[in-house]
Amino acid sequence: MELLLTGATGFVGRNLLLRLIPDARFSRIILPVRDPEKLKMQLSMELRDAMTMDQLGDRLQIVKVSGDAWEIPGRVRPDLAIHAAGRLFGREREGYFQTNMQGSLNLARQLPEITRMIVLSSLAAGGPTPKGKESRSMDHDDAPFSFYGASKLAMEKRLQEKLGSRLLILRPPMVLGARDTATVPLFQMAKGVVRVKPGFQPKQYSWIAVDDLCDALLAAAMSQWPDDRKPFYLTGSGSITDTMLLATAAEVIAARGITLPLPHAVIQGVSILLDSIPALREAVPSLGRDRVREILPNRWVCDGSEFAKAFDWKPRRGFAETLKATAEWLKNRDKI
Question: What is the predicted pLDDT for the residue at 120?
């Protein structure tokens, strides 16, 4: 099978690529990236004990693209595309929609008629758990809470119009694991004597380990897809609270401290300040005003049972072991 993978220099895409390289089922892996040298440097660091770029030969085809145009050479004819690239953080609505909706549609237009596409969306496209419900399911109406979530939902709808039955949409919740530099602020906070959580009520979240997400993507890649399907939610093993997230992050790095609640209004004020100072905005992108909107609801729990049943998949990684692996990877690269 020939596979096209976007987002190979990012978090999920990079983890998936490392899984694909030794997998003989994929005869060629096409990698459209904005910065080919960055990808080559990452691969040389990750694979130095196993193989070199020269040993990979023609199996990896790196294609340089610019912006959100996704100009793929006409000779590229993959059997399957996995679209893991996208904008996670930003200041303006237009930036999210340009990358997540229009960029994804540009990519879909480049693909041959033979190509199936798996797109990595987000629980944010559906929104928080509906009031009075234990979890969000495929049957609930979508109600995104942020520009990010709205852009992912718009992406899904445009791709469905373009690709029809050749499209499979996956909506993971919070993704954790090695190579996730977005968790640096979490571990930095966990090191402190006093840690803060948003709001006075406990917040409940679904989550998934990046290794389990990669397993799910591979299971979907090698399976027949249901004819009548909505976007599938994915979940890891159980849900977590915001206090549990901070406490476990502290535990895996042997830190001690206490967690105190902070009013939502204070966090919203901090996000406005961070957005106004470029250096701070780049240091803590997850606290931008748009993504802080997603902090306000108390429940982001989804039901992944439909995907598990349809693709004979289940999560295998525990929460503490996933955060430990994340911390170890960051420590080994002097990021925390």
Answer: 98
